[in-house]
Design goal:
With 332 residues, the protein is an alpha/beta fold. It is built from five helices and 21 strands. The strands form four sheets. Strands 1, 2, 3, 4, 5, 6, 7 and 8 form an eight-stranded antiparallel β-sheet that branches. The relative contact order is 0.12.
């Protein structure tokens, strides 16, 4: 009888341990897979020894795309029925970039590119211009030029004859502790092919473990040649984040910033909207960092504003959706 009771007790303990272990394994699996997005896999084709990245119709390039030629030269733009049409970004084997115009697969000369941009009454004469992207910009990359009119103002007309070259691209890499943006790897690869400096940001989740979030972000950027510091994206304005909530969240933001600097060796910067900065950022410990501020009006900006997002309605040649336009400030 004692032996039977002992055997029953032993089996119960083993079952409990296995059950707990299984739950632990399942918990860990859910932790690292919940929210993961299926990575975007671009179409890649070979045409006469050249690698083409983009869509193909009737065995011909169609729409925005990038073509890598033998020897290392690259051409990027928009194809119609397999023929080059519109503005193209061309890089030779020495990575020298020029912009050309094409009609029906015939080059008609160099494209006129603008070196300054006007937004409202403000003109950015000493700046570089870029975009920030995520999974919501699924289009294939092409010439990567911002559409503008003759005065340098942003335009939604994709048939304009004025373009501002995209000088840099900032990409969403991750969010929270489990989400890797499905387009990040693709965007990063295209930026490298076109020799466009790139940056990466992480959208913070104040309810998730900070270390896990840092680990996820660092994993994504560790093999990428970033031209910008790591960026913490703080979403929400003063309407979504109250003063009491900011007091609760500030240590979380600082913890992420400090850990990322420790693991990468680079001091991060912070993305937020203008009213968040004015209400919280400039009067808190966050102000020891540089800022990337989103404001679509002509507000004056602090010296700590290194990047400014000036609109979410910019257009890129060959793309059919809006995109955020950013200015890298030199005169601040």
């Amino acid at each position: 009888m004692r032996f039977i009771l002992f055997l029953f007790f032993s089996l119960s303990v083993v079952s409990l341990v296995l059950f707990c272990s299984r739950n632990k394994i399942e918990e860990t699996f859910v932790r690292w897979t919940l929210g993961r997005e299926t990575p975007f896999v671009p179409n890649k084709y070979s045409f006469d020894g050249a690698l083409y990245i983009g869509n193909v119709v009737n065995n011909q390039p169609e729409g925005s795309g990038i073509m890598q030629l033998e020897g290392g030269a690259v051409i990027a733009g928009t194809w119609k029925n397999g023929k080059k049409e519109g503005i193209f970004r061309e890089s030779d084997e020495q990575h020298k970039t020029t912009f050309t115009l094409w009609e029906n697969d015939v080059c008609i000369g160099k494209a006129k590119t603008l070196k300054s941009l006007r937004k409202g009454n403000k003109r950015y004469d000493k700046a570089k211009f870029g975009i920030d992207v995520s999974k919501y910009q699924p289009e294939y990359w092409g010439a990567m030029t911002i559409c503008a009119n003759g005065s340098g103002s942003l335009s939604a007309d994709l048939n304009v004859e004025q373009w501002i070259p995209v000088d840099f691209v900032i990409m969403k890499a991750s969010e929270g502790r489990t989400i890797v943006d499905r387009q990040y790897q693709y965007h990063s690869e295209m930026a490298e092919i076109l020799d466009i400096p790139q940056g990466a940001y992480h959208v913070i989740n104040t309810k998730s473990d900070v270390y896990d979030q840092v680990e996820l972000f660092v994993q994504q950027i560790q093999e990428v040649n970033l031209a910008f510091p790591p960026i913490l994206d703080i979403e929400g304005s003063t309407k979504e984040i109250s003063p009491d909530q900011f007091k609760e969240y500030e240590p979380i933001y600082l913890d992420w910033l400090e850990k990322v600097e420790h693991f990468t060796g680079y001091r991060p910067m912070i993305y937020c909207c203008y009213n968040f900065y004015m209400a919280y950022g400039k009067n808190s410990k966050l102000n020891q960092y540089d800022f990337w501020i989103a404001s679509y009006s002509s507000n004056d900006f602090p010296a700590s504003c290194r990047l400014r997002q000036i609109t979410d309605r910019g257009r890129i040649a060959g793309w059919n959706s809006n995109v955020d336009i950013d200015v890298l400030m030199y005169n601040q």
